[in-house]
Amino acid sequence: MPKVLISDSLSPAAVQIFKDRGIEVDFQPALGNDKEKLAELVGNYDGLAIRSATKVTPKILEKAKNLKVIGRAGIGVDNVDIPAATARGIIVMNTPFGNSITTAEHAISLMLALARQIPEADRSTQAGKWEKNKFMGVEITAKTLGVIGCGNIGSIVADRAIGLKMKVIAYDPFLTAERALEIGVEKVELDELFKRSDFITLHTPLTDKTRNIVDAKALAKMKKGVRIVNCARGGLVDEQALVDALNSNHVAGAAFDVFVEEPATKNVLFGHPNVICTPHLGAATTEAQENVALQVAEQMSDYLLSGAISNAVNFPSITAEEAPKLKPFIALAEKLGSFAGQLTEDPIKEIHITYEGAVAQMKIKALTSAVLSGLLRPMLGDVNVVSAPVIARERGMAVEETTRDAAGDYDNLITVSVMTQAQTRWVSGTVFADGRPRIVNIKGIRMDAEFGPSMIYITNLDKPGFIGRFSSTLGEAGINIATFHVGREAPGASAIALIEIDGELPADVLAKVRALPQVQQAKPLHF
What we know:
Rossmann fold, CATH 3.30.1330.90, six-stranded mixed sheet, 22 strands, globular
């Protein structure tokens, strides 16, 4: 009989699901706050069900000798070391869409409370002051709401705001004009959103590209009297810059449910008269908590009893029988998508994936999900093989799959083509007999390169001296080159290089590489 440890508070109905399915359950909701005790016990279980309190670190996972699956009741898996879990063959599941409505409703609630200064008016009235003239609010009707990030939650917020007779504009690099028209929003660039919005609400993941997306420069571009709501992730807004804008009365108010450091026992926003703060309540409704708890119990039970995988963040939804054969091709598909995604900055219109040879007979949907997961993650962050197709569809991206029995010079070949308004980028890869994924063609230029943790992709003119100058630049910076793969269209024409290095590439060294005479583009990549 499989055994599951529940280390956070979970619905009694979810506990009963495990029991009804014939799974032994150990319910210890306080264990998530005791790392030493959790490490001591976790090795006795096949499954670990958690919320946000439990931190599944590499130290915990080292002790998890029998653990097969971690189930997170909720969307965020920041509290689980995904690479460490994957390395140990542990499936990590979440419930990506269980709290979307709840979070969207909380954003709308904060916006309304901000518009009418409800929390401060409540405190004043209950203190017996009756300061009716002090709390002069604003209507939201006919006001412009700027939505940063118009995915699942952002589109729900937009729908509710339109119902409240607001004008909704949205910035989202992956939102197509067709999808924007469908949900009734006007797609705009970020600077235009800042200039036009009366209210701004954020619904984007925290990535290197979105960190401090609202900083001092962005705040200066906003119209005087703007009000800002953040129910997405701490770190999207420069908190000190926001306080400065509030103190100067450029920003009229802010409502935050998330903070850079959580739990937030102190913060520069706390105590400001024009700020509303809540303790990360976005998913905190009875319905949402019940939904995600029941979903994670069902998913974990299915996996432990039959090997079925659903909503896994580190593996596609496939049966246990298919897994050994598909695994290297899943890795190839995800890495090809990641290669294209890390090089793509414009909104994606179409994605064409071609499967040739032996791979064309495999489970194509799972492979396509892996491609989309790798493609979207560099921009959107929290994307997995289950949510990626939904996210692509929500943003109006056309996904086309083609299969061919023959693969030319290879037993199997996957080609990923990504089309934006500006260009089409494509890359092909294969899996050889050693089971290792390789890139074999980039934009028609042949090469044979394995994926490394830290790489540099360069396009350059095929002229003498490039390799020497590049190698010297890295050598002077103390950076070791692990592998060096080059290819070219024709002598003297465009060429490409894909180089694996040991460690990270510092920004100053990258700038020197880009300044080399023959270099047209240089981009660090991570796999």
